[in-house]
Amino acid sequence: MDDRKFRNAMGKFATGVNVIATEIDGEVYGMTANAFMSVSLDPKLIVISIGNRAKMLDRIRQSGRFSVNVLSCEQQEESMRFAGQKEFEDKFDFGQLGDAPVIEDALCQLSCEVYNEHTEGDHVLFIGKVNDLVLEDGDPLIFNCGKYRRLEAFEEAVK
């Protein structure tokens, strides 16, 4: 099968949108991603997947720390900024949670240290140990079939 067909198949799975961020020598770097999931409750571990050619790969290896910021449906602009889909003249102001830069008002901010890494195919899976987190109320930004979407609740059937 060709690469495009495989990507289209994977795009059928709706995901949340997050920004991975790290800091090196006072400079903060962010990257939009959707490959993220929880791994373990004890210890509290998550996994992110970074492409072999992504600049973020060496940055996370160098810093040993990163954050995962689950974006709200009001934060599509932030997603586009860190995906390189839209250019912005202003510098982005990050907050701080523990030792990691974070996106203010994200639905979830996770401050992590690299716990382990695994190379699989053309990506590296970073296992992150969650050291701190912040939760906010709101609806998530969703990505499905190459488009941003909002979560909509179904009304319960009347019995």
TrEMBL record:
GO molecular function, one term: oxidoreductase activity
Pfam families named among the record's database cross-references: Flavin_Reduct
Sequence ranges assigned to domain Flavin reductase like in this UniProt record: 10-150
Record keywords: Oxidoreductase
EC number: 1.5.1.-
Top-level taxonomic group: Bacteria
UniProt-listed PANTHER family: FLAVIN REDUCTASE, FMN REDUCTASE (NADH) RUTF
Name of the protein in its database record: Flavin reductase family protein
Lineage: Bacteria, Bacillati, Bacillota, Bacilli, Bacillales
